[in-house]
Amino acid sequence: MRGAHAVPVLAVAVAIAGCGSSGTKLSSPATSTTKTSLPPKLSPALSKAAANYHPKIVPTNFSDHVTNPYMPLVPGTMHVLVGLRDGAATRHEVTVLHQTKVIRGVRCAVIHDLVTQQGIKLEDTIDWYAQDRAGNVWYFGEATKEYSRGGTVVSTEGSWEAGVDGAQPGIAMKANPKPGPTYRQEYRPGVALDLARVLKVERTAQISGRTFHRVLVVHDINPLDPSFHERKWYAPGIGVVRTIKVGGGHTETSHIVK
Q1: Helix or strand or coil: residue 4?
Q2: Contact of 179 with 138, CB cutoff 8 Å
Q3: Which range marks the domain in which residue 159 is found?
Q4: Model confidence at 208: pLDDT above 70
């Protein structure tokens, strides 16, 4: 997300590209077209790691009441982030719905993420999360749609649901996040293999004219698109307050305003 001071796009791209970690591949909403293609090939090491990923999911160990300080999901809560996507003003509305969905026997919280430009819908996504007894927030999937300027769905690429087509849940936020090794956020072969790594905890961060304390900085990568890098800032009691994302020839920044 954008901070109190503007960050030049070139500087953003260079800074992000020099780090490692996950997310969804960016595409230009004005030119996206629905397409079918073979999954990209992974390196032998990544392929082996992905093939050996089989988290043990015991439904009684999970709850749709997500209270992790860095990712609290309180039904009825909505956060608004604004920024730029390829130079065009963008608005994200992230709402925790008063709904749940059962996936692999686990009751999950339901999140609605809407992305618009000048009131025109570009992306409409539903995400599913649940928290385990230790306080880790698990990501159980997403149903995403990208739209043309004319309102037609042009892509559902990146959609997945744990238990369907070999997909497995991953960890969206650790119970006690601290700098360390990369961890898996999602897993569906050839579709969703995002990884993340905690970089640091900033004592304070100035974002949108506000001061946030103990801000967690996480870096994401997408092994299916080596050009993709995303950095996210999380504030306790709120969640994401800033993002910077580059990949596939696109750049996107956002910061919280509500």
Answers
A1: coil
A2: no
A3: 9-256
A4: yes
